[in-house]
Amino acid sequence: MATASKQYEELTVESAVALARTHYPFPEGAALECDEIGDGNLNYVFRVADPESGKSVILKQALPYAKVVGESWPLTLQRAQIEADALRKHGEFVPNLVPTVYATDAVLALTVMEDLSHLTIAREGLIAGKAYPQLSTDIGEYLARTLFQTSDFALHPFEKKELAAAFSNPELCKITEDLIFTDPFFDNETNDFEPELKEAVEALWANKALQLEAAKLKFSFLTEAEALLHGDLHTGSIFASDSETKVIDPEFAYYGPIGFDVGLFLANLIFQSLTRNGDQRNVVNSHIERTWETFEARFTDLWKNKGIEAFQQTDGYREFIIEKIFRDALGFAGCELIRRTIGLAHVKDLDGIEDDSRRIELKEQALHLGEKLILQRAEVKSIYEVTALIGEAE
Ligand SMILES: Nc1ncnc2c1ncn2[C@@H]1O[C@H](COP(=O)(O)OP(=O)(O)O)[C@@H](O)[C@H]1O
Ligand SMILES: CSC[C@H]1O[C@H](OP(=O)(O)O)[C@H](O)[C@@H]1O
């Protein structure tokens, strides 16, 4: 007699509670409460809590399509496993900066993980004016440790290539290849922008030099398997408080160019910086500068103390690599600034500005800054020149 095999089904509040009891040690008979709290573009997120004991857990489930678009955009369920595996792999190097994964279920495309609801999503907090004093030091550490430790500078080439194969993530990479590196540079139907931006956008589409540099950056993303990236490191993928930082949502993880994670984070800080003035802007600009300073210092330290590369001591090699990462990061930051302004997926930092003329003005600044970072990435010599460029964007 054939036994019925388990099949994928979308979770409901009821089935989430039942699964939470199986995968998490709630007190027996606890009266569990459950809400779907997902606000991202792709997945369901259920929070299951026992008010009496104060215990709680998160169940994240991938849908067989992109939630933001609907069933017309099918998407692999495999991304749930990639995300859980990336959280665990990165957790080996920065256990304090990622949530603990308690369990996974490949058939249900489910990850059961630590509830971080005592923290706030950094994008929301920054928009509300929070300073998050630890944010850039923690993310600089996260970037250096996760990226160095999964690269050829730290791993035996067999282990690195095994990991690169395990984290092959073609469908999610294709989204990035389209939405970050292609569609915003052409008159594509996925783009989404206010009519007031038409002139600026048409100028961008007509800029041949920009297209060539975007093509080069896309080629880097397609071909340079340098380290296990988070793959979508924006401020909406970071939980924070004054003393704690946790990076979530690495479902776009794959082996790619190190500068991509660095650049995406910097770009999302740049959006926030553009919305602020005076001392408030300086708070964010200090985060931009400290992210790079911390990344560079920790990467250097790891290079010297954990590096296995035969050319590790060769004069100028470390400087060459760090300079490449910096240059790539600026280019990728430029692409993120452009795509989050006129592409399919926007950021609340700008879209949330109700005053139309102010919003359009800041979006134009974001576009110009994005173009500058892409075109001038070889000439910009330090992170302080980047923060200076933000001031010049006005
Ligand atoms: N570990 C967690 N603890 C608490 N809330 C979470 C956790 N993971 C996700 N969330 C909530 O769910 C939202 C969407 O999660 P996210 O992983 O970004 O989903 P998506 O992949 O759809 O973008 C987050 O903005 C956050 O509010
Ligand atoms: C159709 S996916 C669009 C966009 O959404 C992802 O972000 P998130 O899951 O964090 O909301 C990613 O940035 C994709 O480019």
Automatic annotation (TrEMBL):
<feature type="binding site">
    <location>
        <position position="60"/>
    </location>
    <ligand>
        <name>ATP</name>
    </ligand>
</feature>
<dbReference type="InterPro" id="IPR009212">
    <property type="entry name" value="Methylthioribose_kinase"/>
</dbReference>
<keyword id="KW-0486">Methionine biosynthesis</keyword>
<dbReference type="GO" id="GO:0046522">
    <property type="term" value="F:S-methyl-5-thioribose kinase activity"/>
</dbReference>
<comment type="function">
    <text>Catalyzes the phosphorylation of methylthioribose into methylthioribose-1-phosphate.</text>
</comment>
<keyword id="KW-0418">Kinase</keyword>
<feature type="binding site">
    <location>
        <position position="232"/>
    </location>
    <ligand>
        <name>substrate</name>
    </ligand>
</feature>
<dbReference type="GO" id="GO:0005524">
    <property type="term" value="F:ATP binding"/>
</dbReference>
<keyword id="KW-0067">ATP-binding</keyword>
<comment type="subunit">
    <text>Homodimer.</text>
</comment>
<feature type="binding site">
    <location>
        <begin position="249"/>
        <end position="251"/>
    </location>
    <ligand>
        <name>ATP</name>
    </ligand>
</feature>
<keyword id="KW-0808">Transferase</keyword>
<dbReference type="GO" id="GO:0019509">
    <property type="term" value="P:L-methionine salvage from methylthioadenosine"/>
</dbReference>
<feature type="domain" description="Aminoglycoside phosphotransferase">
    <location>
        <begin position="36"/>
        <end position="271"/>
    </location>
</feature>
<comment type="similarity">
    <text>Belongs to the methylthioribose kinase family.</text>
</comment>
<feature type="binding site">
    <location>
        <position position="43"/>
    </location>
    <ligand>
        <name>ATP</name>
    </ligand>
</feature>
<comment type="pathway">
    <text>Amino-acid biosynthesis; L-methionine biosynthesis via salvage pathway; S-methyl-5-thio-alpha-D-ribose 1-phosphate from S-methyl-5'-thioadenosine (hydrolase route): step 2/2.</text>
</comment>
<feature type="binding site">
    <location>
        <position position="339"/>
    </location>
    <ligand>
        <name>substrate</name>
    </ligand>
</feature>
<keyword id="KW-0547">Nucleotide-binding</keyword>
<dbReference type="InterPro" id="IPR002575">
    <property type="entry name" value="Aminoglycoside_PTrfase"/>
</dbReference>
<keyword id="KW-0028">Amino-acid biosynthesis</keyword>
<dbReference type="Pfam" id="PF01636">
    <property type="entry name" value="APH"/>
</dbReference>
<protein>
    <recommendedName>
        <fullName>Methylthioribose kinase</fullName>
        <ecNumber>2.7.1.100</ecNumber>
    </recommendedName>
</protein>
<dbReference type="InterPro" id="IPR011009">
    <property type="entry name" value="Kinase-like_dom_sf"/>
</dbReference>
<feature type="binding site">
    <location>
        <begin position="114"/>
        <end position="116"/>
    </location>
    <ligand>
        <name>ATP</name>
    </ligand>
</feature>
